[in-house]
Design a protein that fits this description.
By secondary structure, the chain is α/β, with parallel strands linked by helices. The chain is built from 19 helices and eleven strands.
């Protein structure tokens, strides 16, 4: 057991973090609370128990996926908070009662539902999230990573990646699957659907107010903007369904200028079933010269983390000549990792990008170097999420 004095100290720190979070649920207080709760949990758990649970985390995923595929969690949520027995869930789904009870032990231990009595369960807010199409899609899309995990030792022993970190090397995902992530999305419609469902679900839980995401927006005035009919206010590059540019237009209807959404294509799988009102849609490959000149904002959301440095440099090489040095601003909306004490989710996202695409989540210093090489300087970095998401402002 951890030293009792240390446990008491950690408990006091958790209580202080709770009090601060109750007063203000801002990003800094949320991160502080999560960090201190995690430290207390690890300190109060035997190291062997911590490692045992870690070793078999994939079984947690498997149990939840099985419960979703069997319809058990949907049946539980349908009871609207009423305690429901494994026998009742078996009757509702046609599945074996004991199998349900065994899997529900995992769900209950994870607190993904409440165990109110012996083999009796009640849905909670996490259960309700899990049965949404977006979260089901997330878990189904995550299945593409399992073969990579199984192959990771063979990947390391068969390639020089661990020694060289070569950003042009074949990613672990492609090594395992025999094709790139993009090819999987192209060839497997069900996984494309899972991926897109997850992306849309993920964005529903993010901050949508541009006043909070990029505070300088609140100070924009018509007199500071180009007002001729051809002037462009914002270009959302690689913007898929255009949710961000649509939000921007709705929140700043008084600002003059055109709103442009660019992407390679606009298939229904991206969620764009019709052109957004007041937004121009343009097919565009960001590895080619940017055709929109002198826009006020060039906005990239979750784009740079998909590409290694040399490809990001190519994107910037094609963008910078289109920018007006006295007017245009580049906005990069992505994870921006701290130099130390990165949150677990941000660290996992970085490794995920390495495995999937041989790309990365970057620190401020890495973005600074990347942008400076393209002739740009970071003006500011605005935190927009509790897990290292941020908007970089560069000119």
């Amino acid at each position: 057991m951890e030293d009792p004095t240390r446990l008491r100290q950690l408990t006091t720190e958790v209580q202080s973090a709770v009090d601060a979070y109750i007063v203000s649920d801002d990003i800094a207080n949320y991160k502080q609370l999560q960090s201190r709760v995690t430290r207390l949990q690890v300190a109060s758990t035997k190291p062997t128990d911590t490692l045992f649970t870690f070793r078999l985390q994939v079984i947690e995923n498997a149990a939840i996926v099985m419960l979703l595929e069997m319809g058990v969690l949907d049946a539980l949520v349908a009871e609207r908070g009423t305690p429901t027995t494994a026998a009742d869930l078996a009757a509702a789904t046609g599945c074996n009662e004991l199998v349900i009870a065994r899997l529900m032990r995992v769900a209950s231990a994870l607190l993904f539902c409440e165990e109110t009595n012996e083999m009796t369960y009640q849905a909670n807010h996490i259960t309700s999230l899990l049965v949404k199409p977006g979260w089901k899609g997330a878990l189904h899309w995550a299945e593409t990573i399992y073969p990579v995990i199984a192959d990771v030792r063979r990947f390391l022993s068969s390639t020089d990646f661990a020694r060289t970190g070569d950003e042009s090397a074949q990613p672990a995902f492609q090594f395992s699957h025999g094709k790139s992530m993009w090819k999987i999305l192209e060839e497997q419609p069900h996984q494309r659907r899972n991926f897109d469902l997850w992306m849309r679900e993920r964005r529903q839980h993010e901050e949508r107010s541009w006043h909070k995401r990029f505070p300088p927006c609140a100070a924009l005035r018509n007199v500071e903007m180009k007002t001729d009919p051809k002037a462009v206010l914002i270009v959302d590059i690689g913007g898929a369904s255009g949710s961000q540019v649509v939000d921007f237009r709705a929140q700043f209807p008084h600002l003059p200028g055109r709103h442009v959404l660019q992407d390679l294509s606009f298939a229904k799988s991206n969620g764009l079933t019709e052109q957004p009102d007041g937004v121009e849609v343009m097919a565009y490959d960001f590895f080619t010269p940017q055709p929109i000149k002198g826009a006020r904002f060039y906005y990239f959301r979750n784009v740079f983390h998909n590409w290694p440095d040399h490809k990001c440099a190519e994107i910037l090489h094609n963008l910078v000549p289109a920018m007006d040095p006295d007017y245009s601003t580049l906005l990069i909306d992505d994870f921006v990792l701290p130099a130390k004490e990165t949150q677990l989710r941000g660290a996992i996202e970085d490794v995920l990008m390495m495995v999937y695409l041989n790309a990365l989540e970057r620190t401020s210093k890495q973005y600074e170097d990347l942008l400076r090489a393209a002739g740009l300087e970071i003006v500011n970095v605005f935190a927009v999420g509790a897990n290292e998401e941020a908007i970089i402002e560069a000119q």
